[in-house]
Amino acid sequence: MAEKASFKVIEDLPKEDVPKAVSRRNFIKGVITSGVAVSSASYLFRASSLLQGQQLAAGIGERLITLNVNGQQRRVDVMKQETLAWTLRYKLGLTGTKLGCDRAECGSCTVLIEDIPLYSCSVLTHTVRGRKVMTIEGLASADGTLHPVQQGVIDEQGFQCAFCMSGFIMTTVGYLKTNPNPTRQKLAHGVSGNLCRCQDYDKILTALMRGADNTRRSVLG
Amino acid sequence: MDNKRLDNKKVVETTKAAEREYGVGHKLIGKNYETADLYAKVTGSAKYAEDFRADGMLFCKLLLSPMPHARVKHIDAKAALAMPGVKAILTADDLPAPADTLTDNGTVIKASKWGERGLTMEPVYQGEPILAVAAVDELTAAEAIEKIQIDFEPLPFVVDPLDTLRPGGPNPRTDGNVWTRPPATASQGPGTPAITELKWTESDFAELKKGRLPMGKTPDEWTYGDLDSGFKNAALVLDETFITPDTSHQTLETRSAMAYWRNGKVYIYTGTQSTAQTLPAIARWLNIDPEKVVFISEYTGGGFGSKITGGVTMIIPALLAKKTNAPVMMRISREEETFIGRARPGFQGRMKVGFSKEGRITALDMFVVCDNGPYDAVGDSPSSGRIVSLLYQPQAMRWRGVTVLTNTPPRSAQSSPGGLQGIVIIEPIIAKAARRLGLDQVGIRRINCPEGKAELGPAIQGKRQYATSSFLKEALDRGAEQFKWAERVARTPKRIGTTVRGVGVSLSCYVGGTIGFDGLLVIKPDGRITFQSGIGNLGTESVIDVHRVGAEVLGVPWEKCDVTWGNTAKNLPFTCVSGGSQTTHAMTRAAYATAMDAKKKLQEIAAKKLGGKPEQYEVANERVFRKGGGAGMTLAQAAKHAIELGGIYDGHEAADDLHKLTKASVAAFAGQGLVGAAKDNYPRDGNTYSYVASFAEVEVDIETGKYYIVDFLASADVGTVIHPRALGGQVLGRSTLGIGHAIGQKWVFDPRYGEMLSKRFYHSKPPTILDVPVDMQWSALDIPDPETPVGARGVGEPPVGGGCASVLNALSDALGDEIFQRAPVNADTILTSLEAGRPMQHPLMAHI
Predict the structure, then answer these.
(1) Does the beta-carbon distance from A154 to B39 stay under 8 Å?
(2) A30 CA to chain B: closest CA distance, Å?
(3) CATH number of the CATH domain containing A214
(4) CATH assignment of B49-155+255-331?
(5) Region B274-287: what's the mean pLDDT?
(6) In chain A, which residue's Cα lies nearest the Cα of B299?
(7) Same domain, residue pair A105 and A158
(8) Do B335 and A100 touch (CB under 8 A)?
């Protein structure tokens, strides 16, 4: 029997809290209505301003918005169809969020939006205005003290190539907020939306369990 | 498989091996520590190729072939090039001529006319890049690609190796369908592989109707021992056909690359399995002087054999950068990676094995068809024969193999290339034989297990090769004990309701090391040591781990050591590629040799400054001092003296036997401290292999066909343990890569159009965290290999075959021998075959 998703899925939130286009269904709708062809090869993005003023496909124009990322207000030009992963990586310089598939399969791009882990490859940037976005770069304290989950990974030498690591860590941090004392089995379910191709699952789980333990201690302390 | 039961109650608890203490008698070797790359990884500041940016950076997109084999008749790019923001187009015509290879001993290897070049006018697989466009942003580049018109002339294609071997079957390449190697001559050595045509006869194919692999003529074959009498004296002879899957490497980081030119040098950023050896590969692909290349690869998001010297496609952004005089980023999408990102070749295999009544293999006749894809010959087929001959020590054996070209994505080595396939073909036969002969599964493997300097392969000039050592019997015994094998086997009932349990064991091994590479370290005047590491940073941590050996030899605390890696401009030594599980063995040897060189120089400096002979001094506790007390100096002082002395001591001179890359790096450090640099010249008697015994228990629901791996244990014979946590990650991680081949990973093709259908993770199904037991177990014997100074062997590939085969054997223990004759084994296979009482999948068709 599949365990029920242990964090609140976005549809369960009160209506007024639901960013309109955060679900995958709405995400796709959002991209389609923007009038941009969705290539089968990848989600594509305009990163330059060299073409400004020229007549291009309808609805591509960028718009200046304010995002709350890692506790800072960041002003950024975004396109309608721009994903949060792209904005973070290519506009805000936050490259710790990785793109492994760009299609909501691997979880490498997971960030927290209002403490809920979501695939940032499948969240349109303009839908998270006014919501708190947290990336791997925002986890450690200003004085450099690591988050207890990051420390758990250090303590246990978790992960190999670590391309999946920031996604796993963000998912775990989000999961622990509602499930602070998981078993190995439950935490495995909690992070099962994240893929590790080094297949270092056993050591990863040990490291994340250590992170859970560190988190409980830090709350108590 | 999606989901593990939440009420999973273990019936048998595995003895915990994790508490075992490694590194007894050592200060650093065998101890856990925090690797220097970990902090950057957990904070997101570690930079992989796509994380680099450069001013004015353009993006490029690829145009991929929609057909499995075609000729490009005409390209019309006018409309695309007229678009605002489009900067350049690159086609195969823009590629440099393939360069010949000049080996280190001066031999010239001519560039192959069949080789892969990155772009082509004759695509030989669906998804092969034809051209690339650079533009101010990625969307513009993609729109430009859409505007390009190409006329293709479709050509005959093949997706199943057997189809091209049929009489009159189509050829995947215009010149033929198989790789052959002309016989060696006394003056020339082995010939260069060539593509030729091979067709089998209708009577060969008669076997297919009986569900058995046809065995026509093969270009390669070897034999040892008396096969006929081996079969004649056998108490049981089994003849089985088995299919192993093609599996994409699917590294989580695709082969994205960024490049720019500055002062006549090209700077390339991409993932690799060897920083040092990717540089000459780039120089060859671009046909430029290696001195004109700077290669940066600080972090690599997985390799598994697919990025041994990076991918040839990295030259595309480099050439576009030259054309546009701007940096170019090439982001490779997941779907593109599926096409160009390499894969393990599947085997269609057949094996006839004779067993004595005690279970000893008296004769083994092995036949494999290796699906090579369209380009360079992979070594899986010959490798499979050598591994089987070593791992099960047949008294007589014949191996025959053919490496067949197909119009499917290019293959390359994947963890345990050929080893996995060979092990997966033979292990179910051994499991079946044990059942027929009434023998214990561990017992039948024990009786065939290699021991000590075990022989392998055919006789070459009258003598068979042999391993440096094998302690696999000990690993098997210890694994059986920890897994409580006997208790699990004896447990009844096997079936409760619709759930049936099964246990499986497998032997496993692969090459575990090479020799002859260089190391380089500098003792700085502040007393710190810098180790220069040319190893790729794939996450196995060998890039850092091997240098613990150097620090231990020199008696320096790890806190005083720095490791430089990931950038060829930072002066790295000649290093092995991190493939074939070479690194830990090869580079601990080089690290040991280098530390011994530094130690010798320290002793000489002390003798020069303080009198006496060098051998009267010892090195420990960050000092070089007279044995038994007396005069001495700190390493910091010795480094200052080294600079005063110059010459060999501070890098102004270098030993003659160092590789030219190492010599250049030594020269770059001249005057900066005491330079230790040495080639691994230690002798080695035998070839290095590492070994694993793998154990699995499964639970199968015979009403749904669904199954779970309840427990897994890998018991490893990998020599001296260097870094336990990193080793554990490799033993279980690579086991799980093998398990993926048992439980779900494969390719699916539409044979009519040659179109790949398994393009995404959810099609090709690499294992998730819910597919493996929640607490997998591993242990290592920690017995030093006698043929290497540190005793350490490599570990990447050896666990892979056993991971897959132990699960397959557990499944046949639960369900019987008539369920599957190919991997992976899916729920539908189990259900349909159980109902029919015989294997219900097509016995031989590839990619289903």
Answers:
(1) yes
(2) 17
(3) 1.10.150.120
(4) 3.90.1170.50
(5) 94
(6) A161
(7) no
(8) no
Cβ-based contacts of B730 with chain A (< 8 Å): 160
Tell me how close the Cα of B140 comes to any Cα of chain A, in angstroms.
7
Tokens of B403: 């490496």
Residues A114 and A173 in one domain: no
Closest chain A residue to B272 measured between Cα atoms?
Answer: A161
Distance from CA of residue B335 to its chain's centroid?
22
CB-based contacts of B480: which residues, under 8 Å, 6+ apart? B442, B486, B505, B693, B695
Number of domains in chain A: 2
Report chain A's mean pLDDT, rounded to a whole number. Answer: 82
Q: What digits encode the pLDDT tens for the residues B242-277?
A: 999 999 999 999 999 999 999 999 999 999 999 999
pLDDT, mean of residues A64-92 = 96
B394: contact with A, CB 8 A cutoff: no
> Which residues in chain A have their CB less than 8 angstroms from residue B5's CB?
1
Per-residue model confidence (pLDDT) at position A9: 37
What average pLDDT does the structure give for chain B? Answer: 95
Contact B762 A105 (CB under 8 A): yes
Whats the size of chain A, residue-wise?
Answer: 221
Query: For residue B445, what are the contacts with CB-CB under 8 A and spacing of at least 6?
Result: B430, B476, B505, B506, B507, B693
Under an 8 A CB cutoff, do A198 and B726 touch? no
Do B301 and A163 make contact, defined as CB atoms within 8 angstroms? yes
pLDDT tier at B17, thresholds 50, 70, 90: low
Q: What domain range includes position A213?
A: 148-220
- What gap in Å lies between CA A23 and CA A30, rounded to an integer? 10
Whether residue A122 is found in the same domain as residue A206: no
Tell me whether residues B774 and A101 touch, CB distance under 8 A: no
At residue A124, the 3 state secondary structure works out as strand
pLDDT tens digits along A156-200: 999 999 999 999 999 999 999 999 999 999 999 999 999 999 999
Do A134 and A163 belong together in one domain? no
Q: In the 8-state DSSP scheme, what is residue B169?
A: P
* Residue reference for tokens 């016995």: B843
pLDDT tens across B638-668, in order?
Answer: 999 999 999 999 999 999 999 999 999 999 9
User: Which of A51, A156, A198 lies nearest to residue B733, judging by beta carbons?
Assistant: A198
Confidence of residue A10 (pLDDT cuts 50, 70, 90): very low
Asked whether residue A87 is domain-assigned, the answer is yes
Chain B's closest residue to A3, CA to CA, is B6
Q: Half-sphere exposure (CA, 13 Å, Cβ side) for A157?
A: 19
CATH of the domain at A73: 3.10.20.30
The Cα–Cα gap between B66 and B74 comes to 15
Nearest C-alpha in B relative to A45: B139
DSSP A58: T
Residues A96 and A27 occupy one common structural domain: yes
Query: Per the domain annotation, does A49 fall within a domain?
Result: no
Q: Which member of A93, A197, A200 has the closest CB to residue B251?
A: A197
- Cβ-based neighbour number of residue B679 at 10 Å: 23
Portion 587-616 of B in contact with A at CB < 8 A: none
Which one of A42, A195, A203 has the shortest CB-CB distance to B725?
Answer: A203
- Structure tokens, B188: 């020339």
Pairing of strands B70-76, B343-344: unpaired
B733 with A137: Cβ contact below 8 A: no
| B186 in reach of chain A (CB within 8 A) | no
Residues B345, B370 contacting (CB under 8 angstroms): yes
Size of interface A-B (CB pairs under 8 A): 223
User: For residues A26 and A32, what is the distance between their CA atoms, to the nearest angstrom?
Assistant: 10
Architecture label for domain B516-679: 2-Layer Sandwich (3.30)
Residue B207 clears pLDDT 70, i.e. is over it? yes
> Is there a contact between B47 and A95 if contact means CB atoms under 8 Å apart?
yes
Check A100 against B252: CB less than 8 A apart: yes
